[in-house]
Design brief:
- Chain A: GO terms for molecular function: iron ion binding; oxidoreductase activity.
- Chain A: Keywords: Molybdenum, Oxidoreductase.
- The complex is a heterodimer.
- By secondary structure, chain A is an alpha+beta fold.
- Chain A folds into three domains: 189 residues, Aldehyde Oxidoreductase, domain 3 (Alpha-Beta Complex); 319 residues, Aldehyde oxidase/xanthine dehydrogenase, molybdopterin binding domain (Aldehyde Oxidoreductase, domain 4, 2-Layer Sandwich), CATH 3.30.365; 139 residues, Aldehyde oxidase/xanthine dehydrogenase, molybdopterin binding domain (Aldehyde Oxidoreductase, domain 4, 2-Layer Sandwich).
- Helices cover 25% and strands 24% of the residues of chain A.
- Chain A is built from 17 helices and 28 strands.
- In chain A, helix 5 packs across helix 6, helix 8 runs parallel beside helix 16 and helix 11 runs parallel beside helix 12.
- Helix content of chain B is 30%, strand content 13%.
- The longest helix of chain B is centred in the last third of the chain and has 14 residues.
- Chain B has two domains: 124 residues, Ubiquitin-like (UB roll) (Roll); 67 residues, [2Fe-2S]-binding domain (DNA polymerase, domain 1, Orthogonal Bundle).
- Chain B is an alpha+beta fold.
- The chains are: A alpha+beta, B alpha+beta.
- At the A-B interface, helix 1, helix 3 and helix 15 of A face helix 2, helix 3, helix 4, helix 5 and helix 6 of B.
Chain lengths: 720, 205
Amino acid sequence: MSRQPFPDLARIDAFDKVQGKTKYSSDVPFPDLLHAMTVPATIGKGMVTSIDVEHALAVPGVVRVLTPHDTPPPPPGPQGSPPPPPMLVHAIAYRGQPVALVVAETLEAAIEGAEAVRVSYALEPFAVRFEDADAGREDTESPTFGDADAAFATATTRIEAIYTTTANHHNPMELLSTTAVWAGGRLTIYEGTQGSNGLKNTVAQLLQIDRSMVDVISPQIGGGFGQRGEVPRHTAVVAQAARLLRRPVKLVMPRNQIFHNSRFRPHVQHAIKLGADANGKMISAHYDCLQQNSRRGRYRSDWYHAGPCKVYGIENYRGTSGDLRLDTHGPAQMRAPYEHPSAFAFESAVDELAFALGRDPVEFRLAHDTKIDASTGKRLTSRHLNECLTRGAEQFGWTGRPVQPGTLKAADGTMAGWGVGAGVYQAAMHPAIATLRVSANGVTRYASAGHEMGQGMRTAIAQVLIAGLRIDPARLTILIGDTTVAPQHSTAGSWGTASSVPVAVAAAEKMTAALAELLDGRKVAGNMHEQLARLRRPFIEIEVSMVAPGQGPEHLERLKTGGMAIAGLHGTYPDFTALSYIAHFVEVHVEPHTRRIRVPRVVSVADCGRVISPRTARSQVQGGVVWALGAALREISETDPRYGGWLNADIAEYHVSVNADIGKIDVSFIDEPDFDANSAGVKGIGEIAMVGAAAALANGVFHATGRRLRTLPIRVEHLI
Amino acid sequence: MTDSPECAAGGIAVTRRVVLGAGASAVAGPALLKGHHVHAQPVPTPSGIENPLLLSFTVNGSSLELDIDARASLLDVLRERLGLTGTKKGCDHGQCGACTVHIDGRTRLSCLTLAAKMNGRQLTTIEGLSDGDTLHPMQTAFVDHDALQCGYCTPGQIMSAVACVRQGYASSPESIRDFMSGNICRCGAYVGIVAAVAAANSSEG
């Protein structure tokens, strides 16, 4: 691959998106379609004692009401495999859990029918607030190396603080929806999912049919952010309804119900102790994280350590972590799932230590450059964090920043503050199998693993195919998110581009070689299509496969059966550690009377390896910053101790950033390839974009006001 | 406040009784692009329509009549009956702006609009904004400034953005941000959206 920067191509699906032509799952029409609506549990915990469907069935247009009797439990899976989500069951684990599914000829009838279902319950006590947890802490073993206690005892400067990050919901704009169609003995599911492979396997398991009979189509997702990484409970229920009724069935779940049934980012309490020696070097870190989980939740508490134990080469680290179990649905991945909360806590603590030492927070971070992952002793492949910090400081105009807080004033007299925060995120990858066909008629068809949720995966793939092939870009079709065209793997963890681009590069190279072999030294004019036409060959089709560093054929097999096959979890490979890096610089304004916080500008510099699609990468970072500002200033999912579930379960009361909340966000990239990680030199961008920016904001609030706020979100009332 | 030029420039109004069911979506969708006549195949109105009402209105320049459920929102009629799925459901409660359309030239949230109130009205949806393959300048600006990511809120953003320029609120970034704050973009494409609206405003003079 050439080392030239890639051109600033427009997003290849933007033309359709601006015309409303893009088909998301609930946009696909079917004749004879039935509409479904879920009936949510109205208690916090307990048992369903009866479901009266008589009134619902009397609503004109209602054709069936599915209850737990219609969704038998599946046989247990292979030993050691996690249980699939149950479909409809009598045991209510959390408020909002679906109790029944009403199916009707029209959406209006389904909604009225769902409201007419009468459910009786036997209530049980429940706990949904972190402070109300009724059982003890469950500890999980966490990264620990060196001797943090001894080093802390010798430290000459120490800080110790507790930080809190609160529960958040993803809230992509597209509602959760499932359309299930049975035809010719096959089930096809249309659903916006980040894991069409996992959804296929789970639905097959729940319906007790062979996985080869299930297809999942998810070509465009209206926002993922991790919400679409887990198989929702309702999916198989809708498929079961379609099976029973022998007609296509569509459910679009109302947003209020999604709050209860989707996963979420849990509430976490972070306790941190940092110690520095007389030279101002960080020599000891203690980090304890205690998170909320559900009663049977599997979301791990120890992964918050992934970033803090690697970022600054601190040689003595003691990590501890644990769960408090509550009666909500289980928490799970939400953008920068562990890294955003842990970076808020750890980067705030680093800022506190730098201040205690009287050091500039940028210079203090620069002084902790490292070539080694202290948690494993492995080589860090390409750590350009210092370049991110240096370039960001220059672009921001950091020079001359007073160390003392409360000294900067904006032109209009408001208190101003400048904060910095840094982040790391794994550079991970999964295997892929791609097919590429270039045809004499001008068409190019490419199929591989991946899901397009707005991050720009199709545009990144198009970049390398257009660069590597002499084809007509206007007639290039990229098929991803479809289990019928190629083995699919879940798209998350910023492994999308790293997994989809190298295999696309290899496909282009193999195609070029195949055509050269066909030409056999003959000079034939034209692009690839024209050459094939002149050679009277209708098309050439090739297939390539690729695995990540350290992987073998068994990982390709796992891909083919729809399993997870990730390499580079937490950046760890057999011989090295590969991470993405970022530095954020935030200017904060605090109005002296109202204490309203505004963020007029942010500068972010990212080291995500090679930048394949400059335009969509820039948008990803801007979006990640918008997410961080929302999490830092507005977003909190409040639980309801009286009735269970989430209290502010809509987007009028759960406040995400709107346009007026966002100012300038300047983004740039180091754009240095990491060829250890993969042949395209890509490390990943979607998650690192958010990491550290909330801390940069909180550090800016401290700089503006002298008030150190350690709980997100930071609101006006915390500054009065 | 002037009438929407999109509506005024619509095709010849051919009033015909069109009874569209869900199955006609694939047929009806393209037919309701701006300036096209309706050639929908008559299919049965779905059973289960309670208190049917005969609705007569103009969609992207084409006159339509169909029986609707009295309870139906305009958004659900567009999506589930007329196959105009460019208008999106993001909350169904008037909180997100994804369902923004123009009714008689003014921005309206179709999820909060009873379809029954549309009698005699002129409706423009995202499908009616471009002229065939020639994009509206605001659509071009959204592509040029990458003012979108997943694209789900984009139709609503563009309908509001067109109104922002038309109503004279695109003169400064602050004014654009205020005007556009009823349209949530969870991907966070706001920087691009402000740039696109400003650029479209300049190009339209």
